[in-house]
Amino acid sequence: MAVTLVQLLHTMMQNKGSDLHVATNSIPMIRVRGDMLKAGSASLTAAEVAGMAGQITTETQRAELAKEFSIDFAFKAQGIGIFRVNIFQQRLGLSIVMRALTESPPTIEELKLPEICRTACNYANGLVLITGPTGSGKSTTLAAMINDINKTSPVHILTLEDPIEFQHVSQTALVSQRSMGQHFTTFASSLRAALREDPDVILVGEMRDTETMELAITAAETGHLVFSTLHTNSAAKTIDRIINSFPADEQPQIRTVLSETLKVVIAQKLIPSADKTRRYCFHDILVNTPAVANLIREGKTHQLLSVQQTGRREGMQVMDTAILEAVKRGEVSGEDGYAYANDKALFAQWAPKGTVAATESSAPTGTQTRTNVPAGTTKKTA
Question: What percent of the chain has pLDDT above 70?
Answer without folding.
Answer: 93
